[in-house]
Design goal:
By secondary structure, the protein is mainly alpha-helical. It has ten helices and two strands; from the N terminus they run αααααααββααα. It has a two-stranded antiparallel sheet with strand order 1-2. Strand 1 (109-110) and strand 2 form a beta hairpin. Helix 5 (51-64) packs across helix 9, helix 6 (66-82) packs antiparallel against helix 9 and helix 7 (85-103) runs antiparallel to helix 8 (118-135). The longest helix has 22 residues, at 138-159. The radius of gyration is 23 Å and the shape is elongated. The termini are far apart. The mean pLDDT is 83.
């Protein structure tokens, strides 16, 4: 019996904010990448006066710098894998093992002393990969990645003031 997760029921709560992200290609997604000089403009960093201003800044900056924040996430992901070499090894080992087994196209692997069918190879890969994966602490790495990305992205979004031209466009006349 397969377990089905109703993704539409979960994502529908976010409104239309994520609909365009799912349908975009990578080149389209990163076409609105802002320059580093704009993303790290120290002249626009300031402490927000109140929580309303924090909300306003975060709403604006999350859409304005969304591609930059995606790059920050990718860079933190690479950093987390480089600082956890066992996890990186396990990912490469399991991926290479699955790729190697799929290249057999259902045939047996014949070594000089024994032959192994694909079921035995998958079982062996599972018996080696799962304990190594548990030792490599992927959950701690994922939680660190979520926390580091959240602090970095929301910290930047809350502290980065809107451009002058956008600040005046919101005021009622």
């Amino acid at each position: 019996m397969a377990i089905r997760i109703p993704i539409d029921a979960i994502t529908s709560r976010f409104g239309d904010r994520f609909n365009n992200i799912r349908s975009q290609s990578l080149s389209t997604r990163f076409s609105n990448l802002r320059p580093v000089s704009e993303f790290l403009d120290l002249k626009r960093l300031s402490k927000p006066a109140n929580f309303g201003e924090v909300q306003s800044r975060v709403n604006y900056n999350l859409s304005h710098f969304s591609s930059n924040y995606a790059v920050v996430f990718v860079m933190l992901s690479i950093y987390s894998l480089l600082t956890n070499p066992l996890l990186l090894f396990v990912i490469i080992f399991v991926t290479a093992g699955l790729w190697g087994i799929s290249k057999l196209d259902g045939r047996d692997l014949h070594l000089g002393f024994r032959s192994f069918n694909t079921s035995q190879l998958y079982t062996g890969l599972l018996c080696v990969g799962v304990p190594l994966g548990i030792i490599a602490s992927p959950f701690a790495t994922a939680l660190w990645l979520i926390g580091a990305t959240g602090v970095t992205v929301f910290g930047h979004a809350a502290m980065m003031d809107k451009p002058i031209e956008n600040a005046f466009s919101e005021e009622a006349v």
